[in-house]
Amino acid sequence: MNGLNVNDLVNLTNTGALKTHLSARAWLTACANADDLEHYRWQLWFQPLDQTPVMVVETNNQPGFTFNGDHQLVYTTVNTQMKHTRLHFYDVKNYETSKTVLLKDHQLKVLEKLAGGQFLLGGRTQRPDKEPNKPWHELKEVPYWSNEEGLVDQTRRHLWVFNSATEQLNDLLPQDFDCSNYWYQDGQLFLCGVSYKNSRPFKDGLYKYDFVNQELQELVRPNQYRVDTIALLKDQLFVLASNCKIYGMGENPNFYRYSGHTLHLVAKWDHNVGNIVVNDMTVVGGHSSTVSDGKLYFVSTVIDHTEVYSFDGQHINLTFKWPGAVNSLASENQRLVFTATTTDQPQQVYQYDGSDLGQVTKYNRFLQKRSVATMHEFEYYDSTNRQCHGWVLYPVNYQSGKKYPAVLEVHGGPRATYGTSFFHEMQVLANAGYFVLFTNLHGSEGQGDEYADLRGRYGQVDYADLMAFTDAVLKQYVDIDPTKVGITGGSYGGYMTNWVIGHTNRFKAAVSQRSIATWVSMMISDIGPEFVTDQLAASLDQENGMQTYWQHSPLSYVHNVQTPTLFLHSDHDFRCPIPEGYQMFQSMKLQGVPTKLVVFHGANHDLSRDGRPDQRMKRLTEMVAWFNKYLK
């Protein structure tokens, strides 16, 4: 039986964005459009309690949606060319659209139903000096671009209220205020954000919106905490947040009770909120927490999988463990509803009633006709003699005693983690005849802050871990040809790929994706001013700052590189901007080392996860071809 190939991307269904209302639920799916590979087919699904799901609409752009009572959904579609938004009021009982409203000059998504026939919408404000068809633009602020949204200078993320009776749209927030997150519970609206000019602070403030007086009430001032989620439990506000003082900007949050403009510690927690088990099936997102029955339910990443916990205002209790990655979480009628992956399945919708786990959807049935490579877990000792485990995928149709090439995968982050989750890219490599090797190094999430703290140690303990893992795999899996091992990774994984080829020649081919060449040029990243100084534990205004940045930069070791390397980068990647790829490629080219750079136009840092289908397929095709050329 054949395994998965590049073209199977058009068969894979992504699922998420779950929302519930009383006895009904709705969610989104996205699948590559085989007839138009520039877009996905987005589908909005509605399911009455325990009945067959019904598709509400199919569109080329991701719709926003919310419930409007028991028998109506409201969803938004955006015309990106005209820059207009249309609200659709859909009667789910009669399966027909009852009304549409056009909102000109706005690109918004409906988020929540408010009281009195009103709806909460979110989106970007327009640049005040915007002049169409001018061959220039001015930058006045930092950040000036965003990986997800492009040019954002002099714009802000705002919230609007739409009144369905008057069809009026009103902006809730002050002009300079930027809203990074919001929560709507029990008729109350809370949000994180900050007002700024010139430069945006990293840590937002926490606010409550007063609908009566139409103003923001500051609860926690900016520059104190990074807030991950909030919950109203028995009329008391609880906040899951981190002050980032011990382990830096990625430090895991603790539980606090809010009163008197102060957060009071209730319970310590050494895990994150949300799924950070990496895979390439994340076209559709979703919420990682929900409030039900007086408890906050939330997702955490633990070692190599996700677990769902509850917090009742005093205690944290495990609800259930999931052998994979929970991507979207909601609650209904004493049940939790969620989307999740397993080792051999992309996202499906599941439900949990306190005792039984049940699968709701049956997407991706074509996988029954494919050989999905199994994850083989094995234990080894890392560079600090700590017992760890990693995984190996065997080549499809593997024959014992035959020698095979292998590819070592390195995840991004570094505060991410590999785990028991379906990964199309790895399946493609296994089907192409490769062993696929992966593990979690120092710096990975899921094993506590101390293990994840890589600040000032980039290219040190993580590199030693990677070599220890590779040695252990080659010793245990004798059918891997040690002379035909390649390496690949993206983001931090791209940094490590660049670092590795400058420190060893043991890998005979490399594919470096959305990588980092130097920490100095990384300062122009959309998160650069905070991320770079935090992760290197140094700043350029320090006496030895430049020396520290250069010491940890792969480009400073490029003179050692002999490994044929393919670079994959996107020209709208503002997380690891395109100069990072150009610097490595040009340096190697001038040295005569076999290299190639493929630039994906209009794509951003998330190309491998939710980029255009044709570009994602081109990326995988280039990767397999490069490894085939140098490893076979």
From TrEMBL:
UniProt cross-references to Pfam families, sorted A to Z: Peptidase_S9 (PF00326)
Swiss-Prot/TrEMBL keywords: Hydrolase
Keyword Hydrolase: yes
Keyword Iron-sulfur in record: no
Domain spans labelled Peptidase S9 prolyl oligopeptidase catalytic: 421-632
Domain of life the protein comes from: Bacteria
Descriptive protein name: S9 family peptidase
Lineage: Bacteria, Bacillati, Bacillota, Bacilli, Lactobacillales
